[in-house]
Specification:
CATH architecture of the domain at 14-204: 2-Layer Sandwich
Shape: rod-shaped
Largest sheet: 4 strands, antiparallel
Number of strands: 4
Radius of gyration: 39 Å
Strand order of the largest sheet: 1-4-3-2
Low-confidence stretches: none
Distance between the termini: 44 Å
Mean pLDDT: 84
Strand content: 5-15%
CATH topology of the domain at 14-204: Beta-Lactamase
Length: about 290
């Protein structure tokens, strides 16, 4: 196996390992950035839903307070307003989800699913927890979720403390079986936002493929440059010296001297070889009759 081939094997293996490690690090960074971006998107959606709730409570409910005495209007309920607003958004973006998941809701639509119930229990087990994020599989693919607790505040108890004290219009619409028994500051549910990861991950993969292609091009170019440098500075001079040594060993005294114009180690070797050749030629002349 030639010297150049051995150098290529060692250098190629080193560059391949370097490329794999660099590619892995790039993917980890891109994946983490994609998930951070999706988390920011989920937080923005959550804040938008909470803003809708606040607007409904402060702007809409006072305007319809008199009418509420004779007719229950769910549009005045912050839960309902935020959910309905998001349902309109889902018509264009069906993979996105916002839900005010509750263990004991007035409207059965808001009842927590199993995984949402687990989130609520986590908030109940640790009241100091203000936010939970994670990932889950959905029929539309992998999604990132963000959840925040729902606490029963004083204005909630007018409708949810006991059926006997709830507005008659609410009982007439939803009945007296669900949505009651809440206590002040009790964690009764969770605001849950679910955002698909597919778009962000596809973008990260496209960027990763571009980076890998660029890394491969750079490493191949580097390997070609190193090959050229090694060949012209090391391999070719050694081959010349080997050829000259072969000629001299065959008895050819007219072999040209090896050029040694530089001050590198190979040049020093060439000078030593030329001196050895001259000394050998003189010794052979002395032995001639």
């Amino acid at each position: 196996m030639s010297l150049l081939v051995r150098i290529n094997l060692v250098l190629g293996a080193a560059l391949a390992i370097f490329g794999v490690v660099l590619g892995y690090c790039c993917w980890e960074i891109l994946e983490a950035n994609a998930k951070r971006e999706v988390t920011r998107e989920a937080a923005l959606m959550m804040d938008s839903a909470l803003a809708t709730r606040t607007y409904t409570s402060m702007e809409i409910l006072p305007l319809l307070a008199e009418r509420m005495k004779t007719e229950f209007l769910p549009q005045t309920v912050p839960f309902y307003a935020a959910t309905q607003n998001f349902l309109k958004l889902r018509e264009q973006h069906p993979a996105y989800l916002y839900k005010e998941a509750t263990l004991n809701p007035t409207n059965p639509r808001d009842r927590a699913a199993d995984w949402e119930g687990d989130l609520i229990q986590q908030f109940r087990s640790d009241p100091a927890t203000h936010e939970i994020t994670g990932e889950r599989d959905t029929p539309r693919g992998r999604a990132l979720y963000l959840a925040r607790p729902i606490r029963a505040e004083s204005e909630c108890l007018g409708c949810h403390s006991a059926a006997s004290s709830a507005p008659a219009t609410l009982i007439a619409r939803y009945g007296s079986d669900n949505g009651f028994g809440w206590e002040l500051n009790e964690i009764v549910g969770a605001h849950v936002v679910s955002v698909p990861l597919a778009g962000a991950m596809a973008s990260a993969e496209a960027t990763f493929h571009a980076i890998v292609t660029a890394i491969a091009a750079v490493l191949i170019t580097l390997l070609a440059i190193v090959n050229g440098v090694v060949y012209f500075l090391v391999v070719r001079p050694i081959r010349r010296m080997a050829g000259a040594a072969e000629e001299i060993s065959s008895g050819n005294r007219t072999a040209a001297e090896i050029s040694a114009s530089s001050s590198s180690e190979l040049a020093m070797l060439a000078q030593s070889f030329n001196r050895l050749r001259t000394s050998l030629e003189k010794a052979m002349k002395l032995l001639e009759p």
